[in-house]
Each structure stands twice: as structure tokens, then as C-alpha cells.
Specification:
213 residues, alpha/beta, Rossmann fold, seven-stranded mixed β-sheet, two-stranded antiparallel ribbon, 6 helices, binds S-adenosyl-L-homocysteine
Length: 213
């Protein structure tokens, strides 16, 4: 199966029916072939609206959830974005079509290496990848206009709140790993933070330290 015109139409239709209506987000998702980020036997299902397993016991998120999170982040082409949880690299690739610059971090070196190779092959030159515990953010490049977490924290990590610029937006799943999590949006103001709860979601947990692979 290829990401041809008919497949794209179906893919976009499924996204719209799940509430992804932002035209810029839909255009970005039309430009990025999800099959590039899915290996082996699951590649055939790349255009279905379901999460799929990748290596290191992690998952590539469901496209409609990627779309809804990206939409909630309200990214503009002037923004510097930090993504915590590179995974396959799919979400970062979509952000790269919308933002000025994307920094993406994962705790598994092998995932970062694989994602970086795809970004290079696709000429996605505005993405910088690194391996670290992303809960601490990336102070050298802070503050960020937008921060997206694709792993669930119990609470928004303090260093990430601190690295969000005033006026900036952070979107993240919060909650215990195996129970219901909520996707929340944090907006930073001059005097503090506003929290909006968006919807129920299910993500892998945000873990401490580096992974073994
Ligand atoms: N955004 C990804 C899906 C991510 S799955 C995609 O588009 O494919 C969540 C990822 O978060 C996993 O790869 C996991 O290794 C990573 N992760 C979990 N805790 C982390 C941490 N503290 N720092 C960085 N990455 C983390």
C-alpha cells in the first residue's frame, strides 16, 4: 500500500471524523507518509487510525490522537517546539511542517538514531534529535514556544513548565500509566499557568533516566 491520492483522502476523512479540523494540521499530515515510521508486518496498517507497536516496547500513536494533540498545540511557523518522546519520529515530522524548529528527545538511543535517519532522508532539516531524559527539557534552547509530551507524566514536569515561554502552550497526557489519563493543555501567563482538560487518552508512561537500547 502506498500513500497515494485515494489513501490520503481516506486517511484525512478518518482524521476529520475524529475532530481534526485544523486545515494546517491536515495539510501537514497529508505531507508525511506514516508508513515510513512503521516497520515490518505493521507497515500495511500504517494508514489505519490505530496505534502500532515500534521497537523498544513503545508505540507510534494513533493518527487522530497525533492530529488532535497537534491541533491543541496551535503551532505557528515562527515557533520553536520541544517534543518529549520521539518514538518513531512521526509526530516530530508533522511538527516540522508547522514549526520553525523542532527539538525532539527520547530516552532510547536506538529510537533517536532510527528517527534521525528518516528525517535526513526526507530532508526534514529543521528537526534536531537528542537522547536524554526529556523530563528535564533542554535548557540550552529554552524557552520554547510550544512543548509536546507524548508519554504520560503524573504531573507536568517542573523543568518543562519552567522552559515554556510566557504566552507558550504545552500539551501533555497526565495520569497513572495504566488507568485513565487526560490530555491537558497548559498555557503560561505572566503570573502563572492555566490548565485545560481536553479528553481521555492512553499513552506509555514517562520514565526516568535513559533506556537500555
Ligand atoms: N511521538 C511518538 C510516540 C511516542 S511513544 C511517535 O510519533 O511515534 C512515547 C515515547 O516516549 C517512547 O519512545 C518512550 O521511550 C519515550 N519516553 C518515555 N519517557 C521518556 C523520558 N523521560 N524522556 C524522553 N523520552 C521518554
Amino acid at each position: 500500500m502506498t500513500f497515494d491520492a485515494a489513501t490520503k483522502m481516506q486517511f484525512l476523512y478518518a482524521l476529520r471524523s475524529k475532530g481534526v479540523t485544523d486545515a494546517r494540521v491536515l495539510t501537514a499530515m497529508e505531507k508525511v507518509d506514516r508508513a515510513l515510521f512503521v516497520r515490518g508486518i505493521f507497515a500495511d496498517r500504517a494508514y489505519e487510525d490505530m496505534p502500532l507497536p515500534i521497537t523498544c516496547g513503545q508505540t507510534i500513536s494513533q493518527p487522530s490522537v497525533v492530529g488532535l494533540m497537534t491541533q491543541a498545540l496551535q503551532v505557528s511557523d515562527r515557533d520553536k517546539v520541544l517534543e518529549v518522546g520521539t518514538g518513531s519520529g512521526y509526530q516530530a515530522a508533522i511538527l516540522s511542517k508547522l514549526a520553525r524548529r523542532v527539538y525532539t528527545v527520547d530516552r532510547y538511543r536506538s529510537l533517536v538514531t532510527a528517527a534521525r535517519a528518516i528525517f535526513e532522508r526526507q530532508d526534514m532539516t529543521n528537526i534536531t534529535t537528542f537522547t536524554a531524559d526529556g523530563s528535564y527539557g533542554f535548557s540550552e534552547q529554552a524557552p520554547f514556544d510550544r512543548i509536546l509530551l507524548t508519554a504520560a507524566a503524573e504531573d507536568p514536569p517542573g523543568p518543562l513548565l519552567a522552559q515554556l515561554r510566557v504566552g507558550g502552550i504545552m500539551v501533555l497526557p497526565v495520569g497513572q500509566s495504566d488507568t485513565v489519563q487526560s490530555l491537558i493543555r497548559v498555557t503560561r501567563h505572566e503570573n502563572g499557568y492555566d490548565y485545560d482538560e481536553l479528553r481521555a487518552v492512553r499513552f506509555v508512561p514517562l520514565l526516568e533516566g535513559l533506556g537500555q537500547e
